[in-house]
Specification:
about 625 residues; alpha/beta; Rossmann fold; 3 domains; 6-stranded antiparallel beta barrel; 23 strands; about 20% strand; elongated; DUF87 domain-containing protein; P-loop_NTPase
Length: about 625
């Protein structure tokens, strides 16, 4: 019926009797089948003329790049990123090196370049076939390799920016063009291209090295890593130190290690900021330290070897102990401070009760309502001040409140109800170990406390009373903030010195609460954050519970550094892009996400493996 070749003479019985291939060949020779008896034409070499000359499947030449832009599922650039369709086919030899988050370049014909990021990777069937079968599975189980030729490997891309040359300077703009189909894409491996594409500044305060998926991005330059820095020059806009920084990370994530390394850069020799009178002044850093770790910045890190030091010098990173480091130790009752883990100078101080007149909430605790707070501020403190003068002590104030005649007089006059009077008295008791201790008042130590280029550490680890710790931290920070924001300051040293106010465990002091005290604190710090850039005041907040920091303060933070966080609420609260948010719980120690819209695109970094100063109690 139809010429089917060898199949036309197929004999089921004879085939069933046949065994291995060798047996078939033997039977054929013995029976003289048509295949063997037919005289087939042969070529010069004795081969059948029906044989085809093998053709190489690999194209000639050398591959450039890792693949090409493909249009099988569309090629579209749109203002709405959800409407953007940009995909690339990755060739077999490049597939194992591709990672989500990697940066790629796709050139336009006129010399401009699309800078993009991989957001998804997938294998797709090369041919229409079902590989979910027993045969495919068992074949795969018996081999050590996958035949990549059976599959397509496609990367989904997110356009980040268009790079273009402007009189020899590489610049970026928003994505406004679609690349051509079959455009060859390559890995971004040039430092200038990557920094321009991600809007990263060339100079500034060093934070870490650019990474993708926990691995540092490598280039062909020397050093091969890409340093990430925060803008710190008025020519590039306001220094970001005065637009406030938040470091969030769980226990063991490396947040104190990282914070020390960043603060060390602000204390580097030659790092100054211009003041209104034309002077260039170094930064004063005041760090509140609940775990007593930051005074160690006075000392060198013994584990920082010469090779590592040379690498730091090549990259312009300040390192080594900072000699101008002083621990100002609050005197609280009989609590003693032990400092065998650092060699920084120690100075004791106390909080004078006179500071309460400017900040009444310092003695209010956290339990006064509006009515009670009003009685304290409008009646009791003014009357005490009139009777005892500005130098009245806390002990004299409690004696003043113990007077039953005063209580009766104020009640009968209708100025303070007796129940309100009693409530105020109860709340202000219990601060006898905080105010007016046997040490110099902080108001007499301002010149030593705030030093251009100096690091002041206020340890509170030795204080077991949480209420006392809050009073001290808030008293000192309020003194600094009030003087910075004042148009008629009492202490010019504070007003005329660039200041970084660091606060570890910031969630304990800037929390969202309903008490009068919390409201006053939040308003003060919010105002400080708003005016920071003008007054050269930067907040440097460190916390493991960012969700507990009040929104009014949080909204003023420009640079957010996120290390490993395991709590879902904490991760949500830091407001980083979702593609980076998903990586936070899996980051190793020292890995971080930096979200600083006025500095760069959101990026992953790896901090330095070694602390630039002494760190740890070993």
């Amino acid at each position: 019926m139809t010429d089917l070749g060898d199949f036309g003479e197929f004999n089921a019985d004879s085939d069933a009797d046949s065994g291995a291939t060798d047996d078939v060949a033997t039977d054929t020779e013995e029976t003289g089948s048509s295949a063997s008896s037919t005289d087939a034409p042969t070529g010069e070499n004795g081969n059948s003329s029906d044989d085809f000359e093998p053709t190489p499947v690999e194209p000639r030449g050398e591959d450039v790049g890792i693949g090409t832009i493909c249009v099988s599922q569309g090629l579209r650039i749109a203002e709405d990123e959800d409407d953007t369709t940009l995909r690339a086919y990755v060739t077999q030899g490049n597939r194992s090196s591709i990672r989500i988050g990697s940066y790629l370049l796709a050139p336009y014909p006129d010399g401009e370049t699309l800078f993009c990021r991989i957001t998804g990777l997938e294998y797709a069937q090369q041919y229409h076939a079902d590989d979910a079968t027993e045969i495919h599975a068992r074949r795969a189980m018996r081999t050590d390799e996958v035949d990549e030729a059976d599959y397509k490997f496609v990367a989904s891309l997110e356009p980040v920016a268009v790079l273009y040359d402007d009189d020899g300077e590489l610049k970026r703009r928003m994505t406004d063009r679609v690349p051509k189909p079959q455009t060859v894409i390559r890995t971004a491996d040039d430092t200038e291209e990557i920094k321009t594409g991600l809007k990263m500044p060339e100079d500034g305060v060093f934070l870490g090295h650019l990474s993708v998926g926990g691995e540092k991005v490598r280039t062909a330059a020397s050093p091969p890593t890409i340093d990430y820095r925060l803008k710190d020059d008025y020519e590039a806009g306001d220094p970001l130190v005065f637009r406030h920084t938040l470091i969030a990370g769980g226990t063991g994530s490396g947040k104190t290690h990282g914070a020390k390394n960043i603060l060390r850069q602000y204390l580097a020799d030659g790092r100054t900021y211009p003041m209104d009178d034309g002077r260039e002044v170094g930064t004063a850093v005041v760090q509140f330290d609940p775990q007593d770790e930051y005074a160690q910045m006075h000392d060198d890190n013994a584990g920082l070897d010469d090779d590592f030091a040379r690498r730091l010098e090549r990259e312009g990173i300040a390192y080594g102990g900072h000699e101008d480091t002083t621990a100002f130790v609050p005197k609280v009752g009989s609590a003693s401070y032990s400092a065998g883990h650092h060699r920084a100078e120690q100075v004791e101080f106390t909080i004078p009760f006179s500071m309460v007149h400017e900040n009444p909430w310092l003695v209010a605790g956290s339990g006064l309502n509006d009515n009670q707070y009003g009685a304290l501020v409008s009646v009791l403190l003014p009357r005490f001040r009139k009777q005892y003068g500005d130098g009245g002590t806390y002990e004299e104030f409690t004696t003043f409140l113990d007077d039953p005649a005063l209580r009766e007089e104020l009640d009968e006059s209708g100025r303070v109800h007796e129940a309100t009077f009693d409530a105020v008295r109860r709340r202000v008791l219990g601060f006898g170990h905080v105010f007016d201790q046997d040490a110099r008042p902080i108001t007499e130590l301002v010149h030593e406390f705030v030093r251009p280029g100096g690091l002041t550490v206020v340890p509170t680890y030795h204080i077991n009373d949480t209420r006392a710790t809050e009073a001290i931290v808030l008293a000192v920070s309020s003194l600094l903030i009030d003087q910075k924001l004042s148009n008629d300051p009492t202490y010019d040293r504070i007003k005329e010195t660039p200041l970084v106010l660091g606060m570890d465990e910031a969630h304990n002091f800037l929390t969202d609460a309903d008490s009068v005290q919390a409201g006053k604190v939040i308003r003060k710090f919010t105002e400080a954050a708003k005016q920071g850039r003008k007054e050269r005041l930067g907040l440097f907040l460190i916390t493991q519970d960012p969700q507990d920091i009040h929104d009014a303060v949080f909204k003023q933070i420009n640079t957010t550094i996120v290390l490993n966080l395991g709590d879902e609420d904490a991760i949500k609260s830091v407001n980083i892009p979702s593609n980076l948010e998903s990586k936070v719980p899996y980051m190793e120690k020292g890995q971080m996400v930096v979200y600083s819209p006025d500095n760069s695109e959101p990026v992953e970094l790896i901090g330095l493996s070694k602390c630039l100063t002494r760190h740890g109690r070993e």
